[in-house]
Each structure stands twice: as structure tokens, then as C-alpha cells.
Amino acid sequence: MYQSLLVCHSFIRWFVLVSLLYSIYTAYKGYSQKLPFTKKDNLIRHWTATIAHIQLIFGILVYVQSPIVKYFWKNFKEAIQNLDASFFGIIHIALMLIAIVFITIGSALAKRKLSDDQKFRTMLMWFSIALLIIFIAIPWPFSPLANRPYFR
Fold first, then answer.
1. In whole angstroms, how far apart are CA 123 and each of 13, 47, 84, 141?
2. Which residues of 55-70 are buried (b: 16+ CB within 10 A; e: fewer)?
3. Distance from first CA to last CA of the chain, Å, rounded?
4. CA quadruple 60, 144, 70, 77: dihedral positive or negative?
5. Tens digits of per-residue pLDDT, 103-115?
6. CB 146, CB 68: distance < 8 Å
């Protein structure tokens, strides 16, 4: 089960990244060009948050099943010295939870703003911060913190 969850979690990250990038692009374009916030823009906002929450569920399932995380918490004093174990034991999940909180807050605030300009600006700001945090927290193949392949 763990391997299947890990593959799904690894695969869904691309949907999260693409949806966030598209949302940020849409928000930037709408804000800079003073466009109306359409039903399509609202769906983009909504689905970006939904995809991120689906990824969060898979991430939590992977976290509780992970042998690295289990080792980390059973051998905390030793494991905290190991960057790979520390990354997956604390850093990855903490940063990703923070990013999901930013996406959730940004989505909720944008939904409640009155003007189109404010909706785009709110989406742009909160989603961009979340994307930056996610880029730091993903174990890219080139990451100095912990690295994994692009696809499992």
C-alpha cells in the first residue's frame, strides 16, 4: 500500500504545480490587465485548492506509512542528524502544511473579496507564496536537502 500511495503522491504533485502555476498566471493576467473575475477564474481558484487538498490527503497517508518517518520518530536523536530523515520527518510535512494553509486562506479570501481586482490580487499573492514554499519543500532530484526522482 505504501508504494502505491507514494506513486500517487509523486504523480499528483505535477497537477498541484501545474494548477498553481496556471492560477498564478491567470491571477497576474487578470490583475495587471484589469480583467473581470469570471466564473472560469473562480473555477480555477477552486480546483487549485481542491487538487492541493487531495495531495495533502495522499501526503498524510504516505507520512503515516513511511519507513523513513517511522525510523525518524523512533530514533529521533540519531535521525535528526540525518538530513534525509529530518527532511521527510519534519521539514517536508511542515512546509507542505504551511503551503496548503496559504492556498486555503488565499482561496477563501479571494472568494470573499468584492472587487475583481482584489480577487486577482489576493489569489496572486497567496498562491505565489504557497508555490515558493512548495518549490523549497519538494525533494527534487537536484535538492541538497533530500532528493528523489521526478517520477516514481
1. 20, 13, 33, 29
2. bbebbebbbeebebbe
3. 14
4. negative
5. 999 999 999 999 9
6. no
